[in-house]
Amino acid sequence: MNIVKPLFLAAALTLTAGSVAEEFVSEAQVIETRAITSTRTIDVLPSACRTGRPESDQLTDVLMWDLTCTGETVVEEVAYRVVYEFEGEQFVTMMNADPGATIPIRVQLR
After folding, report:
1. pLDDT for residue 76
2. Are 77 and 37 in contact (CB under 8 A)?
3. 102, 89, 103: which is closest to 11 by C-alpha?
4. C-alpha 71: how far from its chain's center?
5. Cβ–Cβ < 8 Å for 29, 85
6. Can you give the pLDDT at residue 89?
7. Per-residue pLDDT for 101 more than 90?
8. When comparing pLDDT for 66 and 37, which is higher?
9. Phi/psi class of residue 18: alpha, beta or left (left: φ > 0; alpha: ψ in -120 to 50)?
10. Are 2 and 89 in contact (CB under 8 A)?
């Protein structure tokens, strides 16, 4: 598979001598999209943790407070690995949003 970026796909075609390269925008069919995720723990605590330790010293109260006062785990989609097809060839690119069924590409004829 070739690795290229959308809107910068170059299709090499033989043109007659003295001709000018032609460029146009087309659409390519998306074959596969896979989210690339990042998992991290953030220090934002639930509101119950900001009020401080419970008044009761009973073990169950303290344990419940302690268990709820951990950081929050966040899974973020940070990029998308996109496989797309144009004129029978497949290409791979990374995008910052899910592209849907098609992506725009710039084709240069040389």
Report:
1. 82
2. yes
3. 89
4. 24
5. yes
6. 94
7. yes
8. 37
9. left
10. yes
Model confidence at 23: pLDDT above 70: yes
- This prediction has a pTM of 0.53
Assign 22 to helix, strand or coil. strand
Cβ–Cβ < 8 Å for 110, 29: no
Residues 101, 27, 80: CA angle, nearest 5 degrees: 45
35-to-24, 40, 89 alpha-carbon distances in Å: 29, 16, 22
d(CA 97, CA 103): 11
Task: For CA atoms 27, 30, 97, 3, give the dihedral sign.
Answer: negative
CA distance 94 to 74: 22
34 three-state secondary structure: strand
The answer to whether the beta carbons of residues 36 and 97 sit under 8 Å apart is: no
